[in-house]
Amino acid sequence: MIKIPRGTATHLPEGASLRRYTQEVILSTFFDWGYKEVVTPVFEYLDVLSAGLTSGLLEKSYKFIDRESGKIMLLRPDITPQVARMVAGILSIEPKPLRLCYYGNIFRYEEAHAGREQEIFQVGCELAGSPSPEADAEIIALASETLKKIRIEDFKIVIGQVNYLYGIISFIKDAVDQPLSQENEYALKEAFTKKDSGELEILLNKIGVATDSKKNILKLPELFGGEEILDKAVKISANKVSYEAIMNLQEIYSTLCLYGLKDNIIFDLCDIREIDYYTGIFFEIFSPGIPFPIGRGGRYDNLIGRFGYDCPSTGFAIDIESIITVREKQGEREHINDKPAYLISGGEKEKKEIIQLARDLRDKGYRSILDTGLKDLHSITDYAKNNNINKIILIDANNSKQLSIIDVDTMKKTSINKDKLIS
To answer: Which residues, 6 or more positions from 175, have their beta carbon under 8 angstroms from its beta carbon?
Structure first.
């Protein structure tokens, strides 16, 4: 048996068409919102792209040697840093904000037990040059709109703000007598993210946080839920950074409510993203029954600056395979091409007429397939059924203007003049 590398996939015609359909629906939605498509290279020089990659992504990257220069190259593990490099370079003089979108595959090594693909197809967009809460709201609203366009209505958007917990950790550092070690800081972040109140209390006792402060900090794992979470978070935040983070979330949330997304929003203020280029809001989109996010994004004001041009930005990406999994769980399959389709057959003398008829039908917007050697009507019918072809056209051997049309579903035959068919 011929094998392909683990974590990759071969898509047969139906699956490939489904992925193309999904990609095109999402991209067309981006275009309607004013985003313009860019295409980035599949591989790049490591020393160039590494400025925009985390250590975790670098570790997961597939690397190889450029035969011409001898430099190390890598298959792209993320497209956002490539767009950031583009904005910092050839697009730096363009008026801002820039609305850019893309489609492509990324490559990340995953352990065999992780259950994730190593080649991932993404559709995403970036809004570069605007620091406003309205820009963040637009990105989340656009992500939601794309899901609705492909008839996914049941989803939740889990929103966090990295500065909220960073502010709390800074407060803890200032509140203790001894400097907070890297080990303890990492342990705090882990306890927050896991919402482990017991472990959090042990750590706070260990580093010597005062009882009054500790009481408030231990409420942080409860900050998961609806808009009421923001009011609770304000009361807990004892520092300017955390307070401003909540004010930012409230502005974004108010705008999202205007987009009609109030019921889709969940806040999680006890999480810190593993991708360290996020600088403010971040979000993940979940659908019932899918263990991984089907989309994610956030604000990354410092990323473009790593390539030499300071420019605030926000964006998101959607995982195509996850989207298709959701659609299949809903029991729905798109009709990839719902145009009527004809299979045209005739004798040797009618080749010119067959070719011209196919051309005329295609000009009218119909799919037209030529019989290139099927033996008999039974073979023609089987082929039509297997290829989603609606009707069979038989050209009369004695009169090329006279056509017989067979409906593949009912096998009912009717006669029609060629000129009337294409008129």
So the answer is: 209, 210, 213
> Domain residues for 395?
341-422
In this model, does residue 336 exceed pLDDT 70? no
Yes or no: say if 393 and 357 are a contact pair by the CB < 8 Å rule: yes
Whether 151 is in a domain gets the answer no
User: Are 373 and 247 in a shared domain?
Assistant: no
96 and 166 inside one domain: no
At which residue do the structure tokens 């068919």 appear? Answer: 421
182 and 271 together in one domain: yes
Whether this prediction's pTM lies above 0.90 is answered by: no
Tens of pLDDT, residue by residue over 118-159, are 888 999 999 999 999 999 999 999 999 999 999 999 999 999
CATH number of the structural domain spanning residue 203: 3.30.930.10
Measured from the Cβ of residue 191, the count of other Cβ atoms closer than 10 Å reads 21
